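Lab meeting, item 3. Inverse folding demo.
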């Protein structure tokens, strides 16, 4: 990896770490469905406009079925679940839980026969499970459905990210990676759109909320996906995946700096176990 690749990796981790902060500001005001819809719609439209200016073909007509599947599993469901979780939980905690995504990828890969299971990977899964158990002990936070349901939602989002890897390996050959960045977000917007009728906006959003909507859509979705797929093209998917290790520290940092969040020691310890488990399952 060159210096520019490391800088892109750190920038991507900083952006995706901040996405939890943006969502934490937006979701309590707009609700889970509107937060997810605006993120994918604005992000997808921005990328499509950029592709049009650059003369790039996203292959929307050729690959719409694939984009629909990936958009549902990788964006529509996870973003809605994370937005719901962000109404109740700190952004920094959600950034830590997000590190379980590669573990779900290993699990679904093993179940589908596309991933070889080793003792090191099993050890990583065990470490990750222990980390989740520590995180799910809400020291300083009120236990009960208002805590455990959002934790379950965040883990469900990570499961969607993990399942996406299986879809990409099985049916993603020949699909342009930049097209996936835009197409799957537009498909996710189409999936979420009918649900907006069941989730009316409670009140007009403030300027702060609008600013965070634009940040999570244009920065954490459009720009971040461009950086991510550039990394995949330059250094490969495995090295690009190491961004997962850097997201939790940035998520905790932004939550502390801008939202005044502080996590109990048990949750931080759980985060260390989750990241250690992620290293094991992705490096074996």
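The presenter then showed the designed sequence:
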């Amino acid at each position: 990896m060159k210096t520019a690749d490391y800088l892109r990796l750190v920038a991507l981790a900083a952006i995706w770490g901040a996405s939890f902060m943006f969502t934490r500001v937006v979701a309590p005001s707009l609700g889970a469905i509107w937060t997810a819809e605006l993120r994918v719609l604005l992000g997808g439209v921005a990328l499509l406009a950029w592709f049009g200016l650059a003369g790039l073909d996203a292959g929307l007509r050729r690959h719409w079925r694939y984009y629909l599947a990936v958009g549902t599993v990788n964006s529509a469901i996870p973003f809605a679940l994370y937005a719901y979780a962000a109404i109740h939980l700190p952004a920094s905690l959600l950034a830590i839980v997000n590190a379980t995504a590669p573990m779900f990828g290993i699990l679904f890969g093993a179940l589908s026969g596309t991933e070889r299971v080793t003792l090191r990977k099993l050890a990583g899964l065990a470490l990750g499970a222990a980390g989740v158990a520590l995180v799910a002990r809400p020291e300083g936070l009120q236990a009960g459905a208002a805590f455990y349901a959002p934790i379950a939602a965040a883990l469900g989002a990570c499961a969607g990210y993990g399942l996406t890897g299986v879809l990409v390996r099985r049916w993603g050959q020949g699909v342009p990676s930049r097209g996936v960045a835009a197409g799957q977000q537009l498909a996710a917007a189409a999936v979420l759109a009918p649900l907006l009728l069941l989730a009316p906006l409670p009140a007009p959003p403030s300027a702060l909320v609008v600013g965070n909507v634009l940040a999570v859509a244009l920065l954490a979705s459009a720009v971040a996906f461009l950086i991510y797929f550039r990394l995949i093209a330059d250094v490969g998917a495995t090295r690009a995946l190491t961004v997962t290790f850097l997201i939790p520290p940035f998520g905790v940092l932004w939550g502390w700096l801008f939202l005044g969040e502080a996590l109990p020691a048990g949750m931080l310890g759980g985060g260390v176990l989750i990241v250690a488990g992620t290293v094991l399952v992705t490096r074996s």
